[in-house]
Amino acid sequence: MTGILYFSSTGNSLLIAKKVKERFGGSIVYIPKYEGNGSEFERLVIVTPIYSFGLPTPVYDLLPRLDKDKELIVILNYGGMTGGADALLYDYAKQLDLNIKGIYALKMPENYTLFLVPPKFYTKSVLKSSGKRIDKILDKIEKENYALPKSNVKNAKKETYLKNKGNWHLIGGRFSVNDSCVKCQKCVQICPSNNICLEDGKIVFKDNCIACLGCYHRCPQKAIVYLNKKSKYRYVNPNVKENEIGKDL
Q1: Nearest to residue 32, comparing CAs of 146, 190, 139?
Q2: Which pLDDT score, from 0 to 100, does residue 156 have?
Q3: How far apart are CA 79 and CA 109, in angstroms?
Q4: For residue 95, what are the CA distances in angstroms to 63, 68, 76, 124?
Q5: 185-211 mean pLDDT
Q6: Which is it for strands 43-49 and 2-6: parallel, antiparallel or unpaired?
Q7: Residue 184: pLDDT band with limits 50, 70, 90
């Protein structure tokens, strides 16, 4: 059975994971809640977004404990550009002596929208064509037409990614809630790093943020704001059920 390990905050990676399951069968597992090493599966497919030209913290932390004998395929998705994240991942996997067979990357709608909001027509266009791009990758995997990037990561790029990853926790302190908050605590429940809690009747953001923006985009009241900026734009992939994000399927 194929183990489809995914990380998703707004549904892009979940959509890809579900497509993988439709094609190959298997079990979809949410990485932040997974404590295994993949040994229970015949092969592993990791589906993950690219963060700061690298991997989200939960995915980065997962790789060292994976079973080195299992065939590993990784499908990356990005809103802007890969920035060499595929090569960085390949180098990391080789350092860990993982049995990595293929790394693929495809464009999905941008969800890092704290500073810039993409035009609606652009997001719709990316969504509309995403199915074909996913199918092309799955066709290659099915035919075992595996692809790996050239290992040419510059130390400066690696250091920049690791520095950015080390600073993501600072973002947590820049979030707050406005008067629209009804204290439903959905943000507390969905946060993959346990960075949000209800204290003395108030929503509190702590110092363990991983910059996934799941709370920001999925708050039912749009009550979570960044640096007190007013923005009505929120994104959740419309082709998945929002309540499935963060669950095993």
Answers
A1: 190
A2: 57
A3: 5
A4: 11, 11, 19, 39
A5: 95
A6: parallel
A7: very high
Structure tokens at 88: 């960085």
Residue-wise pLDDT for 80-123, tens only, equals 888 889 999 999 999 999 999 999 999 999 999 998 899 999 99
- Quickly tell me which residue has 């002596």 as its tokens: 97
Q: Say which residue the tokens 């550009």 belong to.
A: 81
Amino acid identity for residue 59 in this structure: V
Three-state SS at 28:
strand
d(CA 228, CA 65): 39
Residue 103: name the closest of 167, 173, 61, 48 by CA.
48
- What's the residue count for the chain? 249
What amino acid is encoded at 120 in this protein?
K
Which two tokens mark 57? 């913290």
How far apart, in whole angstroms, are the C-alpha atoms of residue 69 and residue 11? Answer: 30
Residue 158, pLDDT > 90, answer no
Give the N- to C-terminal CA distance of the chain in Å, as an integer.
14
pTM value is 0.94
